Amino acid sequence: PDGKLHQTAAGQAREKISREKQNSRRSHCLTAALLERNLCRTRKALIGLGRRQHRVIRISPVIPKTVYTRSGESDKPDIPRYPAKMEALTLKICIDPGHSGKIEPGACAGGVTEAAINLEIAKITGRMLEKFGHKVLLTRTGEVDNNWLTWRCEAAWAFDADIFVSIHCNACEDESAKGTEVFYFPGSETGHALASCIQSEVVALCRTVDRKVKTNNEWTVLTETAMPAVLVELAFITNEAERAKLTSGMGQRQFAEGIVKGINRFADGGPLFGKVMESPALYSVRSA
């Protein structure tokens, strides 16, 4: 009997140990499942946080290890940071509202003058550029009493401008003509880059016809400036639909924003584009 009792006790002990092992395994599996579920929730929360705060967050397959922030800020100094993006240059920009006013109003159609439209869009453009930290000079802030062009180039020189942007409206006898085009001096690589940036942004934002960038070696504002210079023909004042856009407050803001986006895109190229003077210079400031 003692032997049977011993065997029974031993069997019960083995069963108890087996049950404990099973329970332990179940507990371990349950714990692992809970951890995995919590990890998934944590990963989703972190990804959602990244989207809300415009952060780039990288999660490892097991646990979140590395957090990269666009701003370079982090709660823990030992967490690796995302390499800072090269900051765009702040430029000295000469904005030239084309034509003069009563003496030389430019193209006229539908009771409005090109000179007046150019001035309004130039003022809006200047204010927008200043908000991005650029220094801006407008060659005119109202009507002027002459239709000479060389003084506009002299103003850009005296301002030590990095780029020169002349704002215009196009015109054509064919009232169906429409679209945007930007001119630069032939052979100017930085002028071409600036023209391409402005052209693409204005066309995309204002949904105008893309008439492409073009060269011109006759216009004074392109031939007598030593910095990258462009002449922007925003749209056709002789086209009824485009004239409505050129004269409306919203349309003028869109054109200005397109120019600003193009300039900022150009400046974002860093030293490759910014602070570049064309060589050889074709013009020099007159002595007083």
Question: How would you describe the overall organization of this protein?
Answer:
By secondary structure, the chain is α/β, with parallel strands linked by helices. 44% of the residues lie in helices and 16% in strands. It has 7 helices and 10 strands. It has helices spanning 2-52, 114-131, 150-159, 189-206, 220-223, 240-247, 249-267; strands at residues 57-58, 66-67, 92-97, 108-109, 112-113, 135-138, 163-170, 180-184, 210-215, 229-236. The strands form 3 sheets. Strands 6-3-7-10-8-9 form a 6-stranded mixed β-sheet, sandwiched between helices. Strands 1-2 form a two-stranded antiparallel sheet. Strands 4-5 form a two-stranded antiparallel ribbon.
Quick structural overview:
This protein is α/β, with parallel strands linked by helices.
Would you tell me the structural class of the helices and strands?
alpha/beta
Tell me the quaternary state.
single chain
The mean pLDDT is 76
Note the run of SSEs as H and E: HEEEEEHEHEEHEHEHH
Question: Which regions are unreliable across 5 or more consecutive residues at pLDDT < 50?
Answer: 39-86, 271-277, 279-288
| CA-atom Rg in angstroms | 33 Å
Largest beta sheet: strand ordering: 6-3-7-10-8-9
Output the number of helix runs.
7
Strand content: 15-25%
Globular, elongated, flat, extended or rod-shaped: what is the shape?
elongated
Number of strands: 10
Largest sheet: 6 strands, mixed
For the record, give the distance between the C-alpha atoms at the N and C termini, rounded to a whole number.
Answer: 129 Å
The helix content is: 40-55%
